[in-house]
Write a structure and sequence with these properties.
The complex is a heterodimer of chains A (110) and B (117).
Chain A: E1 5-7, E2 10-14, E3 19-24, E4 31-37, E5 44-49, E6 55-58, E7 61-65, E8 71-76, E9 85-92, E10 98-100, E11 104-109
Parallel strand pairs in A: 2-11
Antiparallel strand pairs in A: 1-3, 3-8, 4-5, 4-9, 6-7, 7-8, 9-10, 9-11
Chain B: E1 4-7, E2 10-13, E3 19-25, E4 30-38, E5 44-51, E6 57-58, E7 67-73, E8 76-81, E9 90-98, E10 107-108, E11 112-116
Parallel strand pairs in B: 2-11
Antiparallel strand pairs in B: 1-3, 3-8, 4-5, 4-9, 5-6, 7-8, 9-10, 9-11
Classes of the chains: A mainly beta (110), B mainly beta (117).
């Protein structure tokens, strides 16, 4: 089983602050996805990174895939209350499998 | 595009009864569907993977006789929790991968909250 550890596990910040969430593993993944899940709903795909060192931006969110494709980070600039949710990274390995991270629960306080 | 629905969104049942949850891909053909279970404030735990027309592959520790999965078509998979007990209460989420899409991207349904009394 490929384990993906996310840190921090919980994060509570004020609106306007910046934050970074980390997703680390000892395994190599062919690609890595980030999802956001709101209470009582299913996860929503935010981005997929494929190439080692790749950086993708989605408005105020910046995603980076590690050079060795074992880790990733999510940076949010000027966080908004709407960014509140559970952030999950997921590494792809094999034909269909995704291995989900432990999750980071973000709360942005207005 | 890539919308996945689940029905019902919430279900409350008595201990010993069976509950069926449906997962549908609304606007695409799903190569594979997955069933997850999520406990409060935790990440997703994969229960099983199902491909249309074949038997589901269950993760270690998941009882296949208790969690029956049927994948009758490229757009429908069902999960039946048989003889449900209070410890089966959880949030069940399905997802699907789209035929022709790479990188193992999964599209998730909105989840079903099961409460067993």
């Amino acid at each position: 089983t490929q384990l993906l550890e996310q840190s921090p596990q919980f994060l509570s910040i004020q609106e306007g602050e910046n934050l970074t969430v980390y997703c680390n593993s000892s395994s190599v993944f062919s690609s890595l996805q980030w999802y956001r899940q709101e209470p009582g709903e299913g996860p929503v795909l935010l981005v997929t990174v494929v190439t080692g060192g790749e950086v993708k931006k989605l408005k105020r969110l910046t995603f980076q895939f590690g050079d060795a494709r074992k880790d990733s980070s999510l940076h949010i600039t000027a966080a908004q209350p709407g960014d509140t949710g559970l952030y999950l990274c997921a590494g792809a390995a094999g034909a269909n499998n995704l291995f989900f991270g432990t999750g980071t629960r973000l709360t942005v306080i207005p | 595009g890539a919308v996945v629905s689940q029905h019902p969104s919430r279900v409350i049942c008595k201990s010993g009864t069976s509950v069926k949850i449906e997962c549908r891909s609304l606007d695409f053909q799903a190569t594979t569907m997955f069933w997850y279970r999520q406990f409060p404030k935790q990440s997703l735990m994969l229960m099983a993977t199902s491909n249309e027309g074949s038997k589901a592959t269950y993760e270690q520790g998941v009882e296949k006789d208790k969690f029956l999965i049927n994948h009758a078509s490229l757009t429908l998979s069902t999960l039946t929790v048989t003889s449900a007990h209070p410890e089966d209460s959880s949030f069940y989420i399905c997802s699907a991968t789209q035929r022709g899409i790479s990188y193992n991207e999964q599209f998730f349904g909105p989840g079903t909250r099961l409460t067993v009394l």
